[in-house]
Specification:
Two copies of one chain form a homodimer.
Chain A: H1 7-22, H2 26-41, H3 49-64, H4 70-81, H5 84-92, H6 97-108, H7 118-130, E1 135-136, H8 138-147, E2 150-154, H9 160-173, E3 177-182, H10 193-198, E4 206-209, H11 224-232, E5 236-239, H12 241-247, E6 254-259, H13 263-269, E7 276-280
Parallel strand pairs in A: 1-7, 2-3, 2-5, 3-4, 5-6
Antiparallel strand pairs in A: 6-7
Helix pairs in contact in A: 1-2, 1-3, 2-3, 4-9, 5-6, 5-9, 6-7, 6-9
């Protein structure tokens, strides 16, 4: 999925969110925001938006001298952990734990740039559990899970990974081996090894990192070790829009679980903004 | 009112609207959009947003080789003229024609970047006529009109100027001399002499131009003739947000009639977006 011109204003909008999280110094915010226009000027529109946003967020971290999302990520992990028992019960008591946990993992993908309040997440959970998914390849997904032993699970955001933990625990109960993948280092509010530890995921399954600070998964920038895992995996579960943008058509037996959160992507998919998808790649 | 960092994404968003009106060539759209990032990189944030947008829209016209808004302006003039008889009757039959015509002129300010449909404008007219203005200095405005003989009337958008024509005709009926001001040449969908002719305004009062292609009214870029008119006017009616941004605190006895259409301006004024104002400067 390539950059659209509508992404250009959005690049600056997202940068501003990061800058305001990272510093109260308005002069510094302005300086960095102006520097970032270089990446828009030179954006390669044959590539997914994730390429440009990777450069932008690297520049922001470099100029701020740190990760602007560190604090909010910790907050998201904590808030999501408060829901853990409830979500685990919903999953265990449902007729189809794998489907329920998958829907909850998609609901968890709402934890992104916005302000994550318990009201937002409650309504999103209810929407995921009580409505059809807008794209629903869940039958094929469940069949595929039943046929394999190992799953490579590409995580997305901090906080959200508590929801992923519940899906991973459900898969493990069904005797699947799961290897979860975090980013190699901080980018936006994506989960790193630190978040996986905070969310209790490292005690549940093996967690590896992809060796990259890119938005989504830009394969050529990931480590050789991750590339091997990716190519050899029996099955991949890919969380979030960034992974969808960058990995669509990348290989067989990959399932994308996410909410379509931007108008460009939603339009390309012919869906309303906020649509929930469990989509075979 | 100075540029805020929130204006930066919006500069690109507005440029994209202009580019898509001006050409179907997506490569050209991309080339121009990328060129425009230079004006964001060098934006003077001690100045109103109108400074930066003036440079941006000059560049767009130059690179497109024409005015991307020409067609839509003609359409707006035509659509607004279809409402002329109805709006004139509403004004004449009201208990306070000057207040009614002023409210209609504020309603007409909705004719901006958006798509102007008869439904939008009908609902805006009803809102203007049936609700209080969010900022209402109309008593002082009507008193001021009663005390002077001549008014300099700064017009804003094509289409909208049909609504202004009705307010100007109401002022003329009350024995005021009105001089209306259009832009010196095309910028966004602002009215030029051509639009004043299309809207039948040139047959109603003297129309002059301000010698400038700036968004709003950036006094130092206007003609000496206009500057003299501005400084010596007994009273000024200023239409639209661009004029408000650039002329607030510029002189005595100036009244701003507009809708607050962007979140930055609305927030600065402590109002909801879309608020209607008749505000003493």
């Amino acid at each position: 999925m390539k950059v659209q011109l509508d992404c250009f204003p959005c690049f600056l909008k997202q940068a501003l969110i990061a800058l305001r999280l990272g510093t109260n110094n308005e002069v510094l915010q302005e300086t960095i925001l102006k520097e970032i226009t270089d990446y828009i000027k030179t954006a390669d529109t044959s590539m997914p938006p994730a390429y440009t946003t990777t450069f932008i967020h690297r520049k922001i971290r470099q100029m701020l001298g740190g990760d602007p999302f560190a604090e909010i990520k910790a907050k998201y992990n904590k808030l999501a952990l408060e829901l853990y028992d409830k979500l685990t019960n919903i999953t265990s008591n449902s007729g189809n734990p794998l489907l329920t946990a998958s829907k909850l993992a998609i609901a968890g993908n709402v934890i992104d740039f916005g302000i994550f309040t318990s009201i937002d997440i409650e309504s999103t959970i209810n929407r995921a559990l009580n409505n059809e998914l807008e794209v629903d390849d869940s039958e094929e997904f469940i069949k595929s899970v039943s046929e394999i032993n190992e799953i490579l699970y590409l995580l997305d955001n901090a906080g959200e990974i508590v929801f992923d933990r519940i899906l991973i625990e459900t898969l493990i109960k069904a005797n699947k081996r799961v290897k979860a993948v975090v980013k190699g280092s901080a980018v936006i509010n994506d989960a790193t090894m630190f978040d996986a530890e905070e969310a209790g995921l490292t005690g549940v399954c093996e967690v590896i990192d992809n060796g990259s600070d890119a938005v989504g998964t830009i394969l050529q920038w990931t480590s050789k070790k991750f590339q091997d895992e990716f190519n050899e995996a029996q099955m991949i579960i890919s969380k979030g829009q960034g992974n969808f943008e960058t990995l669509l058509h990348s290989r067989k037996n990959i399932y994308f679980l996410f909410q379509s959160k931007c108008r460009v992507v939603s339009k390309e998919l012919g869906l309303d903004n906020g649509a929930m998808l469990l989509m075979k790649g």
